[in-house]
């Protein structure tokens, strides 16, 4: 919980109540819920969707993503039915607003890969082929703004995002606006790309992925999660995430950091031990505090929690009771 000492492992009454709100599934139990959902991705598709320094196997797609896609297909159909009921009551033509899925979790936990795989699978269902994916990185303030406000060491924390613009984007998409632009972020330059946008055009489903999508602010009239029809929190032990972050840093050092325009180019030639030291320092000074203070406590707000083991494979699934 937010502000709670991490060495206090005994569950609080609030945590016990939160756990009771969920149905818990082992991996085999969850995999059985696939029923007859067909596998629509090839091995080549899976290879193209895999993230940096992250494992993604065919069994993960079959055991975890196919049952989830079946559940979401049923959820989308039900949401559309309720929408038609309300439109009938109001005496207006039936409209089908986008079904919005929020995906949250720590840096390096595998949210981006999860979102890409989910997008690819959901887009293969015949009833909702238009599936858009937007990440919250695009709603970070530009580097110049963060530097002027002294927030570069707080990048990824709630105050580093243009929350008003994020909420306006989600509201416009949910309202069925024909074209809604979202800013684009470059992980290479570590900044917003000036003048570039990703335009969302009335998708059947929008996947909205990022650190802060389930966070709430005291006194805020609207939250990002107010627009979600479903939400997922990708979870893992802190020690596992820290190791994944370090390994990803080493891989990027040999690839993206070598490019002239890379913001992290200064790290490209560090010896392995120094590079690990830098990665550990960034994790402990920025990403870990953000996880503990602003991200981890939002886990209990998600409809679905996926708990990964050290090998990146999902081991436990918690689905909120209706």
From TrEMBL:
Tell me where it resides: Cytoplasm
Key words of the record: ATP-binding, Coenzyme A biosynthesis, Cytoplasm, Kinase, Nucleotide-binding, Transferase
- ATP-binding as a keyword? yes
Asked if the keyword Methyltransferase belongs to this entry, the reply reads no
Please name the InterPro entries in this protein's record.
P-loop_NTPase, PanK, PRK/URK
Protein family per UniProt: Belongs to the prokaryotic pantothenate kinase family.
| Listed name of the protein | Pantothenate kinase
